[in-house]
């Protein structure tokens, strides 16, 4: 079909008119019957037109016959003509005219074609976490700005390339280093150590790295911090010689060398609030940094939220189910990282293994236990000639006392850390600590009101009597209770930190 120009100065309009109203005298009409039907998609009956080969009386070709006009056919042809003109106008002329007449403010950007099918709506750029680079989002005002943008883009691409190269180099060097460490012969503690590192930063100079390979061949890396603590931290057998935000180094002060069994921490798996130490040699141990010492923190902040003890007491239950007991729980053996309290100094914990029984001599602090528990768990405190030798049956019989020993000490530390100093002093000072023969439990008739106030707030109602019995006399509670609940099941954490 030939293109039709609707310019009124051309003769196409007269041709269309001739098609519907009759033959013209000058131009040969064009047959639009098929084209009109294809545009209008109508199936109306049509009059048959004579063949174009038909000739007139003089032997010339006759113009196509036009059906006889009637009011109905004339109206129908007029409608078809108007539709045909409207379609042509909308397809060719109208968009161009509208684009020319539109002002810059009214012009709309071209609409991109819709995808065939989308299972999910497209994610906005900001919500997807991506954003345009600053250079690509700036519209340059002149060639100098464009050159600057191009330069910034090149710098960004070059920086990314260099970062990728550096990352690959680090990965390559680390893999080689791991292979070297695995091939080196470890010392008696299963540790491979490096030479003192001569780093460029002051905190790196003199740092010694230690690498431990466990039974699964997994490499554990640690180092000795060169930074010293702000104030001396020293216990009865060891002291802190270096500390930073990652690790703590402790040296032996007196006593025997650190035993190799310190590095046997399989019983602590998945207990993230229990921070063990790794003996790198007979005189040095390295531990993960767990935060501020809770005792020092309480001197500044008075008390903390009880919800921060929740994960710790759950881990304590996990250890008890594995027949592992810490035995020396106290405020000084906790750290606080702002989210959780963590157990530290757990190297001398008691692990009861019925298959491999061993001598059990737990570390205990007199102020955090009772006289009766000491007589059961540490009889040498009263009889210096007592020899620690336990049969498997005797070791298993101590489990109830070891369990309640941990729970009693945990309760005392939690009460002290979650109670204002004035109230905790009144409660704790009501019990004379000097004479060990008089310690049955921290709670008594003189201070029971303070402890009951805390119990009502932090213990589930159905376990009030259990916790009160533990605080009054944990030894008696262990003897009279059959299958007692775990402390983590009895405590109530309102507004739990983990919720």
From TrEMBL:
Basic and acidic residues composition-biased segments: 141-152
UniProt superkingdom: Bacteria
Bias type Polar residues, positions: 1-15, 130-140
Spans annotated as Disordered: 1-152
Protein name: Protein kinase domain-containing protein
């Amino acid at each position: 079909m030939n293109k039709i120009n609707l310019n009124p100065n051309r003769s196409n309009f007269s041709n269309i008119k001739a098609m519907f109203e009759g033959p013209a005298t000058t131009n040969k009409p064009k047959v639009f019957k098929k084209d009109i039907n294809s545009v209008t998609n109508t199936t109306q009956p049509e009059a048959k037109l004579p063949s174009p080969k038909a000739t007139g009386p003089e032997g010339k070709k006759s113009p196509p016959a036009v059906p006889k006009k009637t009011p109905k056919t004339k109206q129908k042809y007029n409608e078809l003509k108007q539709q045909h003109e409207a379609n042509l106008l909308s397809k060719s002329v109208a968009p161009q005219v509208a684009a020319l007449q539109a002002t810059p403010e009214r012009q709309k950007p071209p609409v991109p074609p819709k995808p065939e099918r989308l299972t999910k709506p497209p994610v906005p750029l900001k919500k997807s976490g991506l954003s345009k680079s600053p250079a690509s989002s700036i519209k340059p005002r002149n060639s100098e700005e464009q050159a600057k943008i191009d330069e910034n883009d090149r710098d960004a691409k070059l920086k990314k390339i260099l970062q990728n190269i550096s990352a690959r180099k680090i990965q390559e060097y680390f893999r080689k280093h791991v292979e070297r460490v695995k091939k080196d012969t470890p010392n008696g503690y299963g540790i491979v150590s490096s030479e003192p590192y001569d780093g460029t930063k002051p905190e790196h100079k003199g740092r010694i790295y230690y690498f431990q390979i466990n039974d699964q061949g997994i490499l554990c890396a640690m180092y000795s911090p060169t930074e010293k603590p702000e104030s001396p931290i020293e216990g009865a057998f060891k002291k802190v010689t270096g500390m930073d935000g990652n690790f703590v180094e402790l040296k032996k002060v007196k006593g025997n060398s650190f035993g190799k069994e310190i590095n046997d921490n399989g019983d602590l798996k998945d207990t993230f609030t229990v921070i063990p130490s790794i003996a790198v040699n007979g005189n040095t141990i390295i531990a993960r940094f767990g935060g501020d010492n809770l005792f020092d923190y309480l001197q500044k902040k008075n008390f903390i939220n009880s919800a921060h003890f929740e994960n710790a007491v759950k881990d304590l239950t996990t250890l008890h189910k594995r027949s592992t007991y810490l035995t020396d729980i106290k405020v000084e053996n906790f750290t606080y990282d702002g989210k959780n309290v963590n157990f530290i100094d757990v190297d001398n914990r008691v692990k009861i293994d019925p298959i491999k029984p061993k001598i059990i001599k737990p570390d205990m602090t007199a102020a955090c236990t009772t006289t009766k528990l000491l007589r059961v768990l540490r009889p040498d405190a009263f009889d210096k000639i007592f020899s620690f030798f336990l049969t498997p049956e005797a070791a298993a019989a101590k489990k109830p006392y070891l369990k309640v020993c941990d729970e009693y000490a945990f309760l005392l530390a939690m009460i002290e850390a979650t109670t204002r100093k004035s109230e905790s002093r009144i409660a704790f000072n009501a019990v004379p600590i000097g004479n060990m023969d008089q310690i049955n439990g921290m709670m008594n008739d003189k201070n029971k009101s303070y402890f009951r106030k805390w119990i009502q707030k932090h213990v589930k109602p159905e376990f009030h009597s259990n916790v009160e019995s533990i605080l009054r006399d944990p030894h008696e509670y262990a003897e009279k209770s059959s299958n007692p609940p775990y402390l983590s099941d009895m405590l109530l954490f309102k507004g739990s930190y983990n919720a």
